[in-house]
Structure formats: C-alpha cells, structure tokens
Design goal:
The complex is a heterodimer of chains A (about 110) and B (about 110). Chain A has about 110 residues and is mainly beta. Chain A is about 0% helix and about 55% strand. Chain A has no helices and eleven strands. The relative contact order of chain A is 0.33. Chain B is about 0% helix and about 55% strand. In chain B, strands 2, 4, 5, 6, 9, 10 and 11 form a seven-stranded mixed sheet that branches. In chain B, strands 1-3-8-7 form a four-stranded antiparallel sheet, with no helix packed on it. In chain B, a hairpin with a 7-residue loop joins strand 9 and strand 10. The termini of chain B are far apart. The chains are: A mainly beta (about 110), B mainly beta (about 110). Chains A and B meet through strand 4, strand 5, strand 9 and strand 10 of A and strand 4, strand 5, strand 9 and strand 10 of B.
C-alpha cells in the first residue's frame, strides 16, 4: 500500500516557468519532509514541516504543510536546470518512531 | 560528502550468493536506517537500528539481515540472492529517533 501519493509523476518544463507538485495521504503525519535526489546519489533533505498550515521557503522553493497534516505541496518559482531531479516527500506517522515512509517521487526536468 | 559512507558503491554477483553492504553513519548520529530503492517500488524501508539495538522493521525479507556494531557502523547482509534483489540500497543516519535523515550515496547491487 502506497501511503504517500505524489503527483505528477513526471514533469518537464522550460527554464523560467513556475510549477507546483503535490504529496497526498489519507494518514496524518507528525512531520513531513521533502528530499531531492540526483542520479547516482542519495536523497538530500530540503525541508521538514511539522505544524499544520506551516509554510517554509528555501530560496525559490516554497513548501506548505496542509492544515490537517495529511498533505503537502512544493512550489518552485522561475525553475532552473539545476532544479532537475527526483523530488521525494516522506512522512513520519503520528505515534510512530522516526521511520520515514516515502512517496515514489516526482521526476522534474527543467530544459534550458 | 554527506558524512554517511557506504561501501561498496557497486556490486555485481550471481544468483544464490551472499553479500554484505557496509554503512558508517555521520559522526554523532545514533540511528541507522536501511532502504531499498527500485524503479517500480521507490524507496522501501527495510530496518532501523538505534545505538546498537533494532528499533523498527519494514518489508525486509527473511533472507536479509542487519546489525549495528558498538562503533555504530552497520552492515546489511543479503543471502540467497535473486534477480529481483537488484536495486540501490541506501543507508541513512539521524541524530536521534526524530528529525531529517542524512543519506549515503548508496550501493548499486546487480544480481546476474
């Protein structure tokens, strides 16, 4: 059972465009994290969100945690080729230990 | 360099064989996690250790086992290997039992 659904699965856009991708679940998470993974490397943590409704910004990336703590979105402004990669969301279930459950990821390609 | 070291980086072996993957966590991190990543399943949690003790188990096959040693490094043992075990195996570490993970660069296992 895939507890975290990420959409869209694949996204190819032109440099300079804006985009929003989503991470949805029917479960409540105590925290949710976003990672970016490049080919041949391990995922790298971008952000952790903990409070429902929380918004965090990391340069051109804006992360939002849903009010009910079941979903999250990632918005990228003026995408650049360096943003290309696999974006993974991962959640820690309420009451569980720190075991992260990952979504399958969103493959983003930004064309110059 | 994330601070999490995984060896070897690549491994090619025959069906039926046994291999050992090694992970040294980031300095100061007590928790070690093992994940398997394949194209169709994404990142699947295998097992977690905290300060030498098994803390959580995921979808880890009986043919697979792991341990964490007193110096906190961890080994994942895969035996009676099958073609379907071909995947990327990642180790991650964290300070405690909450918070973001730091991933290693992974071991790419190919079973032929």
């Amino acid at each position: 059972t895939q507890l975290l659904e990420q959409s869209p699965q694949f996204l190819s856009i032109q440099e300079g465009e804006n985009l929003t991708v989503y991470c949805n679940s029917s479960s409540v998470f105590s925290s949710l994290q976003w990672y970016r993974q490049e080919p041949g490397e391990g995922p790298v943590l971008l952000v952790t969100v903990v409070t429902g409704g929380e918004v965090k910004k990391l340069k051109r990336l804006t992360f939002q945690f849903g009010d009910a703590r079941k979903d999250s979105s990632l918005h990228i402004t003026a995408a650049q080729p360096g943003d290309t990669g696999l974006y993974l969301c991962a959640g820690v279930h309420t009451g569980a230990n720190s075991k992260l459950t990952f979504g399958k990821g969103i493959t983003l390609s930004v064309r110059p | 360099d994330s601070g999490v070291t995984q060896t070897p980086k690549h491994l090619i072996t025959a069906t039926g064989q046994r291999v050992t993957l090694r992970c040294s966590p980031r300095s100061g991190d007590l928790s070690v996690y093992w994940y398997q990543q394949s194209l169709d399943q994404g990142l699947q949690f295998l097992i977690q250790y905290y300060n030498g003790e098994e803390r959580a188990k995921g979808n880890i096959l009986e043919r697979f086992s792991a341990q964490q040693f007193p110096d906190l490094h961890s080994e994942l043992n895969l035996s009676s290997l099958e073609l379907g075990d071909s995947a990327l195996y990642f180790c991650a570490s964290s300070v405690g039992t909450v918070g973001g993970y730091t991933f290693g660069s992974g071991t790419r296992l190919t079973v032929v």
